[in-house]
C-alpha cells in the first residue's frame, strides 16, 4: 500500500466493498480524500445538498430520507467499513442525508474522482451498479418493516441495528425520542414498548442507555416471534 495514507482510511477501505478494486483505483480515490471527525448528533451530509461520499472508520451513522416538507424517516444504519452517500455521488443530488449517532471518524472521498474513474474502469462501474441495487433492496426491506411491522418489531430491529459492543455487552446509546423518530412513532408509544421488552427480559436499563440482555430473544421479537421462555431474561412477552 502507498505510504502516507491515513491508517483508519486504509483499514476501513479493506473492510468495505471497495476492497475488491485494484490498488491503482484505490490509490487514485484515496489520494485526494480527507479525514473528518463528526461529533454525535451532527450532520455528516445534508439531504438535497452537494453530493458527498463517506467511508466510515469508526462510530455509527444513521442514513435518512428527508421530504421537501422536512419529514424524516430512517432507512438504514452504517458502521465501520461502510460507505454512505453513493446515491448522491451517482445522481449528483439525493433526498437522503446522514447523521452521526456516536462520534464518527470518516474519510470523505472525492465524488468527481469517483465519477471520472467509473467512466473508464468497468470493474468500478459494475461494482457501483451492484451496490446501488443493494441499497434499493435494503431500503425497500427496511421501509417495509417500518410500514407493516408492529411497534415492537420495528423497535426491536432498530435496537439491534444501533447496538455497539462494550465490556458490559451490547449497548444502545440513544434517547427514546430518537427511537420514536426512527420508527415513525411517538415517545409515549416507544416508552410502553420498551417496558414490554424489559418485562420480556430482552433489554434492560443501562447508565449509557439500553443494554440488550438477550440478543437472540430480541432477534425473535424483531421477526414477529415470541422470545423463548428459557432465554436469559427467563420470560416471554
Describe, in plain words, how this protein is organized in 3D:
The protein is α+β, with helices and mostly antiparallel strands. Helix content is 42%, strand content 23%. It has 9 helices and 12 strands. A 4-stranded antiparallel sheet has the order 1-8-3-6. Helix 6 packs across helix 7, helix 6 packs across helix 9 and helix 7 crosses helix 8 (187-199). The longest helix is centred in the middle third of the chain and has 27 residues, at 122-148. Residues 229-237 have low confidence and may be disordered.
Q: Beta-sheet strand percentage? A: 15-25%
Strand order of the largest sheet: 1-8-3-6
Helix content: 40-55%
Structural class: alpha+beta
Q: What general form does the structure show?
A: globular
Task: Report the mean per-residue pLDDT as an integer.
Answer: 86
Q: Write the element-wise H/E pattern from the N-terminal end onward.
A: HHEEEEEEHEEHHHEEHHEEH
Terminal CA distance reads: 52 Å
Number of strands: 12
Instruction: Please mark out the parts with pLDDT under 50 across 5 or more consecutive residues, or reply none.
Output: 229-237
Q: Could you tell me the radius of gyration in angstroms?
A: 19 Å
Biggest sheet record: 4 strands, antiparallel
- DSSP summary: helix tally: 9
Any descriptors?
4-stranded antiparallel beta sheet; disordered C terminus; alpha+beta; single chain; 42% helix; 237 residues; 9 helices; 12 strands
Q: How is this structure best summarized?
A:
A hairpin with a 2-residue loop joins strand 9 and strand 10 (169-172). This protein has helices at 7-15, 23-31, 86-91, 111-118, 122-148, 151-162, 176-183, 187-199, 215-222; strands at residues 34-38, 43-45, 53-58, 61-66, 72-78, 83-84, 96-100, 104-109, 164-166, 169-172, 203-206, 209-212. With 237 residues, the protein is α+β, with helices and mostly antiparallel strands.
Amino acid at each position: 500500500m502507498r505510504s502516507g495514507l491515513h491508517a483508519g482510511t486504509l483499514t476501513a477501505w479493506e473492510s468495505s466493498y471497495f476492497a475488491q478494486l485494484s490498488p491503482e483505483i484505490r490509490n487514485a480515490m484515496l489520494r485526494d480524500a480527507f479525514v473528518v471527525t463528526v461529533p454525535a448528533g451532527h450532520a455528516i451530509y445534508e439531504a438535497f445538498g452537494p453530493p458527498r461520499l463517506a467511508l466510515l472508520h469508526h462510530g455509527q451513522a444513521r442514513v435518512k430520507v428527508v421530504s421537501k416538507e422536512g419529514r424524516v424517516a430512517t432507512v438504514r444504519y452504517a458502521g465501520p467499513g461502510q460507505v454512505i452517500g453513493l446515491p448522491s455521488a451517482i445522481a449528483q443530488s439525493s433526498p437522503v442525508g446522514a447523521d452521526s449517532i456516536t462520534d464518527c471518524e470518516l474519510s470523505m472521498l472525492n465524488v468527481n474522482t469517483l465519477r471520472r474513474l467509473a467512466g473508464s474502469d468497468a470493474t468500478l462501474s459494475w461494482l457501483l451498479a451492484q451496490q446501488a441495487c443493494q441499497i434499493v433492496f435494503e431500503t425497500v426491506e427496511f421501509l417495509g418493516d417500518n410500514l407493516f411491522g408492529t411497534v415492537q418489531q420495528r423497535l426491536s430491529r432498530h435496537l439491534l441495528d444501533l447496538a455497539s459492543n462494550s465490556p458490559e455487552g451490547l449497548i444502545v446509546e440513544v434517547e427514546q425520542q430518537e427511537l420514536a423518530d426512527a420508527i415513525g412513532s411517538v415517545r409515549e408509544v416507544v416508552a410502553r414498548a420498551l417496558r414490554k421488552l424489559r418485562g420480556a427480559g430482552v433489554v434492560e436499563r443501562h447508565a449509557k442507555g439500553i443494554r440488550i440482555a438477550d440478543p437472540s430473544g430480541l432477534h425473535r421479537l424483531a421477526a414477529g416471534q415470541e422470545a423463548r421462555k428459557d432465554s436469559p431474561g427467563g420470560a416471554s412477552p
